[in-house]
Amino acid sequence: MRYIQGSIVSNFRVILTARRSFLDSFSAMMAVANPNGPKIIAPLLNMSKPQIAATAKGLGIGEHDTWSCYRPITDNGSVSPCNQCDACRLHDHAWRAIEA
């Protein structure tokens, strides 16, 4: 079993648990606590938002197929991005960057 962690290179300044040192330490602790337990992988950790967008595009995933938002809007059971927070702006920037 694997647990896929989605932190990216720009997150480590804000989110301490997104740092490689934290993930390595946590993984080592988990290996001792539960040797046959899940393994943590972080395939996006060393990628920028534009690199991730380019990879997604190469896989046939479009800009509106994904989103990242700190203040999602809920309305009648649906959830959508606010399009105003930093995460939304970075998502938009990533897709604009690969179009340039």
Approximate strand percentage: 5-15%
When the domains are counted, the total is 2
Number of H- or I-type helical stretches: 3
- Main sheet, how many strands, which sense, barrel? 2 strands, parallel
Low-confidence stretches: none
Strand tally is: 4
Distance between the termini: 39 Å
H and E order: EHEHEEH
Major β-sheet strand ordering = 1-2
The global form is globular
| SSE-based structural type | alpha+beta
In helices, the fraction of residues equals 25-40%
Give the mean pLDDT: 86
Integer-rounded radius of gyration:
16 Å
Quaternary structure classification: single chain
In short:
It contains 3 helices and 4 strands, in the order βαβαββα. The protein is an alpha+beta fold. The strands form 2 sheets. The chain has a two-stranded parallel sheet.
Relevant terms:
single chain, 100 residues, alpha+beta, 2 domains, two-stranded parallel sheet, two-stranded antiparallel sheet, 3 helices
